[in-house]
Amino acid sequence: MEETKSNSYFETAPIGRLIARFAIPSIISLVVNALYNIVDQIFIGNGVGYLGNGATTVVFPITVVATALALLIGDGGAAYLSLRLGEGNSERATKGVGNSIVMLVSAGILLLAIALIFLKPLLVLFGGTEAIMPYALAYGKIISIGLPFVVISTGLNSIIRADGNPKMSMVSMILGAVINTILDPVFIFVFKWGVEGAALATILGQIVSFVISAIYIRKLRSVKLTRDSFRLDANTLRSCSGLGISSFITQIAIVIMSILCNVLLAKYGALTEYGSDIPITVLGIVMKVNQILIAILIGISSGAQPILGYNYGARNMKRVKKTYGIMLIASAVVSVAAFIMFQCFPQSIINLFGSESDLYNQFALKAFHIFLLMCIASAYQVTSSIFLQAIGKPIPSMVSALLRQLIIFVPAAIILPTLMGIDGILWAMPIADLSSAVITLFMIIYAMKEINQQEHYQGGKK
To answer: What is the pLDDT of residues 131-175, one digit of tens each?
Structure first.
């Protein structure tokens, strides 16, 4: 029980400070992770050109699949750890962490093999055009080598945050990103290695993050790993996977969205003055810039996740509700600031990725204004989805994520271009954002009724 008591501050410390303590390092870690691709695109855009950036857009789904597997296992293991510690069951908590580590290693190795064997067919599937493909193959071959390090370090970082040490998670990600940022211009502009140099800088940074996380995991605070912890248990894996499924679905939906958008943009872009390559490159940049906003939102929610999980497991419903309220306020402030930036200053963002033609800038401005129009609604959906996951409701959480990125977006992206041309692809996103936020609201109302009933039954905890 000694390990469990070490996390009792989740139940006693001021919630606002507690969320800040966990959310700020989590936000920094996730934003830094999102910046890996953006830093590459900034240097590639200025050193290679927009076709090089198009290559990173086509390869992007592969890296997102790696993140999806990492979050399925890592976020699931982290939520399982918090819930079991809240219940006072350190033995099951330890088993969850050990099983998660085994699955992270296995998933990383499997993904590496698949990516190396099927790289070219995958890039064709992901929308690689004839002009972009040489750059995509060169970039993708090197990026694939780093996939195991991405999966393992990202998953371990979720567990490290739940263990009560978000600063270590932050340090791991920041050091990797700093190395990537320093080496990118050296490899691209000094050594003239082009997209291959950007990819090499990226995986060297990922290896550093992996090493730091792997060293820490041997010294966890809340549980003590033993050889038995790493023996796979079907029930433990099922529970962890269920708790991480929402994060997985969210990332896989990004993959499907990216592939669908690339294919549709190539098709409908060819019918316009923009051609196929400009829309593919531009929307890839817009989606990655939006990933910074999503990373901040997930960081806020991930920082609150161990607080939610622990208190829900301990049946302290007042703190669960208060934590969710603070999450919503913080997410609203961030999303309103992002909305102002996307709508009022998009050209400043576009200029970071290199100077291109008037046609390129014209489509980029349109994409920022339309595609990100309802980012405030998407912020509510993302935050609420993770809240549902944190309190052990993976099915509603998964449905919420699916609504925005698959169930509503995919049909809209397919149907609207037949009526509006290439602009229809852009309008599919705000429609999906708003619709999914409204439906998620009803899920939250139902979940809150259950929480209120439990609180009333127990008399509540002060």
So the answer is: 999 999 999 999 999 999 999 999 998 899 889 887 888 888 889
- Compute, in degrees rounded to 10, the torsion defined by CA atoms 404, 410, 413, 419: -110
Maximum distance among all alpha carbons in the chain? 68
Mean pLDDT for 24-40 is 77
Provide the percentage of residues in the chain whose pLDDT is more than 90.
Answer: 57
Which pLDDT band holds residue 5 (cuts at 50, 70, 90)?
Answer: very low
What separation in angstroms does the CA of 418 have from each of 37, 63, 272? Answer: 32, 31, 14
Q: Report which of 125, 151, 138 is spatially closest to residue 64, judged by C-alpha positions.
A: 151
* pLDDT of amino acid 22: 82
Contact between 41 and 342 (Cβ < 8 Å): no
Residue 229 and residue 61: Cα distance in Å, rounded?
Answer: 33
315 vs 4: CA distance, rounded Å: 15
Is residue 325 pLDDT above 80, yes or no?
A: yes
| pLDDT (tens digit per residue) in 50-98 | 888 888 889 989 998 998 999 899 989 998 998 898 888 989 999 999 9
| Rounded Cα–Cα distance for residues 414 and 422 (Å) | 11
Q: What is the pTM of this model?
A: 0.78
